[in-house]
Amino acid sequence: MTTGPALTEQPRLPVAEKSTVRGAAVELLRGDRRTVVVLLLLHAVAAVAGLASPWLLGVIVDEVTAGAGIGTIDRLALAIVGCVLAQGLLNRYAQYVGYRFGERAVARLREEFVRRTLGLPVGVVERAGTGDLATRSSVDVNMVGTMVRDALPVVVISSAQLLLLFGAVCLLHPIFGLVGLAGAPTIAVAVRHYLRRARDAYLAEGAAMAELTETMTATAEGARTVEGLRLTDQRITYGTGRIGRLWATRRATLRLRSVFFPTVEASYALPVAIVLLVGGFLLDRGAVSLGAVVAAALYLQQSIGPLDALLQWMEQTQRGVASFARVLGVGQVPPEPRGGAVVPSDQRLVVRDARFGYADGPDVLHGINLEIRPGERLAVVGPSGAGKSTLARLIAGIDRPRTGEVLLGGCPVTDLDPAQRRREIALVTQEHHVFIGTLRDNLAFAAPEATDGQMRSALVAVGADWYADLPDGLDTVLGDGARELSPADAQQLALARIVLADPHTLILDEATAALDPTTARRTERALGAVLAGRTVIAIAHRLNTAHDADRVAVLDDGRITELGNHHELLATGGAYAALWRSWHA
């Protein structure tokens, strides 16, 4: 558990490059290309209908100037009303189609994200921390959903509307089109300034949010430890620092918006003012009609809406693109290798000259050599930090040694298909989880085909006496908001899953640490009866486990210093004998 600011930062999951994001966005659109085409056509027709109103108003001005009658004006006014209604209906239906498209696209994205996440190696997830992955699966996926459902259609349609409006202004008179670009240089400079900085700023904000989530989660989960070790002030200081870092990144993005939006909004009125001045000059010389000047001014005034929407949603799109890069980054982690025809010849485990270190740090295991015979019970003991849990992870195939190899039946365990490897070797640690669902659901994770009788037998086998007191038996709902299990009960549930999974090799990494000594002893005896004939590797501080084992491996500073049975090691008077005397004392 993290305890203070001196802790090394967790290695983050990767972030996708811009080219990868662009390619994924194209694939997202291709997944529903027919709807995209319909959506664009609807908005295009709606935009054309919107162009008719200013033009018809200009015609009305010219007709009135020419002395047209009431009937002509009424017909033109009715045409304007029809165009406005048509534009409104088309826009509404286009928005409906757009939302349906967005929801389908986000659903596909979520499914792909879950698939990629489930394919991540366990070691990668553990080293990255839960905060980063949790933030990507919630905040970032939701942000991408907003971008696809809301921002992306607005950006595309607003861009098309601006092009059509500018084309209409140019048709009225080329000079009007030139004047309409009066605010473009200022907007271009502001957009360039914003886009060059936005992606990195929003990525930094997302990373800071992930760090804060990780800190808050670790502190909440370890609240009792924090209180017991009097680390409250230290954790508050550490958490305050993470909040300060998030606040700093949000201030950075706020500064970008504070420069961007006021600058572009100040440029909106300039083209309208200039076109009226230039239009008056041209009208005085007979180069254009009054209706053309009015229509041009209305078109430019009308362009403020899509331009403002474009620039407003551009900011949201930048957030969405940054989140999309984080979501896609999960897929850039190489998944666990899927084995082909690699089949172990037997159940013999061999660790040969294995060395291992985390990330770029020094080795924590140094040249481990160990052979574990089928059906043997091996206890691994040693002081805290000796590398016992790391050795368990190597044997279980969660981590790959830097050098050397770990073999099962002559095959490297990391080359086995993950599903096959987990059927062969099961690792039970101090950590356990009760899923929200029935007791039956929780047990079925280990063996989906298990019968109710087999599930009850597994619970009895691990001494889960509390099962008999459940009101609905296997149908009792467990987890948050339902029946809470104590740490000891939850750990027995985890052991029952192992009984159902029926592996030939079982690694217990202090698996009974959450149980009181009496319950732990009873559970270990029950497991001993159930797992007779299986290979058991027990990593424990309680040396009664070592006393009952066939052999004991003493691990110290990443090296096996002693190997033998309980009586042999006591007779040598070495490290194991000292541990035994200390434990009994």
Notable traits:
585 residues, alpha/beta, ABC transporter transmembrane region fold, Rossmann fold, 6-stranded mixed sheet, 4-stranded antiparallel sheet, 63% helix, 10% strand, disordered N terminus
Question: In brief, what are we looking at here?
Answer:
With 585 residues, this protein is α/β, with parallel strands linked by helices.
CATH superfamily of the largest domain: P-loop containing nucleotide triphosphate hydrolases
* Share of residues in strands: 5-15%
Number of helices: 20
Q: At the third CATH level, what is the topology name of the largest domain?
A: Rossmann fold
User: What gyration radius follows from the Cα positions, in whole Å?
Assistant: 34 Å
SSE blueprint:
Blueprint: H1 18-30, H2 33-65, H3 70-118, H4 122-128, H5 130-172, H6 174-179, H7 184-221, H8 223-228, H9 232-266, H10 269-284, H11 290-330, E1 349-356, E2 365-372, E3 377-381, H12 388-396, E4 403-408, E5 411-412, H13 418-424, E6 425-428, E7 437-438, H14 439-444, H15 452-461, E8 477-478, H16 487-501, E9 505-509, H17 517-530, E10 535-539, H18 544-548, E11 551-556, E12 559-564, H19 566-572, H20 575-584
Parallel strand pairs: 3-10, 3-11, 6-9, 9-10
Antiparallel strand pairs: 1-2, 1-4, 4-5, 7-8, 11-12
Helix pairs in contact: 1-11, 2-3, 2-5, 2-11, 3-5, 5-7, 5-11, 7-9, 7-11, 9-11, 10-11, 15-16, 16-17, 19-20
